[in-house]
Amino acid sequence: MSSAGPCFRSDAEVARIGAGLIDGALPGAEWTHAAHWASALWLIVVRTDLHPPRDMPGLIRAYNQSLGNRNTDTSGYHETITQASLRAAWHAVALAPAGAPLFETCNRLLASDLGRPDWLMRYWSKPVLFSIEARRDWVGPDQEALPYPPYPAPVGPRVMPGI
Fold first, then answer.
1. pLDDT at 116
2. Is 2 part of any domain?
């Protein structure tokens, strides 16, 4: 990310973004790269009733539609980007210090290479990542193996203190 300092200052900020994705109340101008990560982390840590790889696609599609945007073969929801990002987000949660506030986990993720909007280009070529097939379904990397394993199957609620 940038050297401008932390992006998020509280768990409440992260929760507002995650809840705003779900209920469609998040203003479109706030649906930034950082907000994508914040919502993914919030879903993983807080919304243990949901399974992000299964539920995030519908949430993003519905959110896009709430803004008047369409989900097509060239815009809107993108399956490969979403699933790769969820793998990376899960990895960030797994590596977070015990009891770390969620906003700190998000800020650490954003300070890493994942904070760059083009982070996926290390693993996918542009033609593959932006293909219709990759937008519709998971397409594995064609340049370098993704270092994040598939998102685990649900095994029960996860709890982080302070959330």
1. 96
2. no
